[in-house]
Structure formats: C-alpha cells, structure tokens
TrEMBL record:
Coiled coil: 37-64
A GO cellular component entry from the record: BBSome
Pfam families reported for this sequence: BBIP10 (PF14777)
Record keywords, A-Z: Coiled coil
Protein name per Swiss-Prot or TrEMBL: BBSome-interacting protein 1
Amino acid sequence: MPEVKSMFREVLPKQGQLSMEDVPTMVLCKPKLMPLKSVTLEKLEKMQLEAQEAIKQQDLALKEPQ
C-alpha cells in the first residue's frame, strides 16, 4: 500500500511529559456459569416423567381386576 504524506508533521517534545490518548482494548470479565439444563428442558423432562408414571399407574389399575 503506498504511503500517504500528511500535511501535518509529527512533533515530539524534547523534555517534559508525553501523553497519549487511551486506545480502547478488550477487557476480560469473569466467566458466567451457565446451567447444564435449561429451565424449559427441566420442565419437559418433569412432564415426561409424570406422564410415564401416569401410564404405569393406569397399566397397574387395568391388571388388578383380572
């Protein structure tokens, strides 16, 4: 890529303090703990277990009179 000449030239102080504007950088934050199972999945599993229990009870109720 060709170098573009600027109409401004860089000036650095010979003595004193040199300051620079802060450049935004990425900051790492604490990892967030995610549940292994979502609330919806837990509800579905609970509903499935309840349905299986109900089917077992119905089967046992049908077998008892015989």
